[in-house]
Design goal:
- InterPro entries: RNA_pol_sigma-70-like (IPR039425), RNA_pol_sigma-70_dom (IPR014284), RNA_pol_sigma70_r2 (IPR007627), RNA_pol_sigma70_r4_t2 (IPR013249), RNA_pol_sigma_r2 (IPR013325), RNA_pol_sigma_r3/r4-like (IPR013324), WH-like_DNA-bd_sf (IPR036388).
- This is RNA polymerase subunit sigma.
- Residues 15-81 form the RNA polymerase sigma-70 region domain.
- It is built from 7 helices and no strands.
- It is mostly helical.
- Helix 6 (139-146) crosses helix 7 (150-171).
- The longest helix has 31 residues, at 61-91.
Length: 172
């Protein structure tokens, strides 16, 4: 077992030495920020380390690293978009009722968790759930908007609620 660990460590080291510069450059071009690029490049290699699959089976290391880094980059952009939307909403509030930086951080983290939960739902289920919860539409109105029967909207809502409850239980 220790020998397998040493071989894996050597493979990761070789992958890092051979491709870290390229990955960092690609991320720097995408982000326009060398510090954030370095962070995401490092996060990419942390993901590689956490994967259980055999690194010796990787045929195209750059494509493999690119896929991981691209996912991290999408998450980064999504997080920035959510944070900015929240900060824009906070900026519209009078200064006297503006939340503290700690409260803002908690709200942003919660929004990111909700976004992650919603992204795991099928498109029509997510859309029906959002139309109900954010816009207050009736099931009949949602059915017209989504292009399904009212009975299907009920199924979508049950699916979304079950998904929410499952996530709440997982966190407990």
């Amino acid at each position: 077992m220790a020998a397998d660990g040493l071989v894996r460590q050597q493979l990761v080291h070789r992958l890092y030495v051979d491709h870290q510069g390229w990955l960092n450059g690609w991320l720097r071009r995408q982000l326009g920020c060398s510090q954030r690029a370095a962070d995401l490049a490092q996060d990419t290699f942390v993901r590689v380390l956490s994967k259980d699959q055999g690194l010796d089976a990787i045929r195209e290391p750059r494509a493999y690293l690119h896929t991981i880094a691209r996912g991290l980059l999408i998450n980064h952009w999504r997080r920035r978009q959510i944070e900015q939307a929240y900060l824009d909403a906070v900026a519209l509030q009078p200064e006297a009722v503006a939340p503290s930086p700690e409260s803002q951080a908690l709200v942003v983290e919660t929004l990111l968790q909700v976004d992650a939960m919603l992204s795991r739902l099928p498109e029509k289920v997510r859309r029906a759930f959002l139309l109900s919860q954010l816009h207050g539409l009736t099931y009949a109105a949602i059915a017209l908007e989504v292009g399904v029967s009212e009975r299907m909207v009920k199924k979508y809502m049950a699916q979304a609620m079950l998904h929410c409850l499952t996530l709440i239980e997982d966190d407990a």
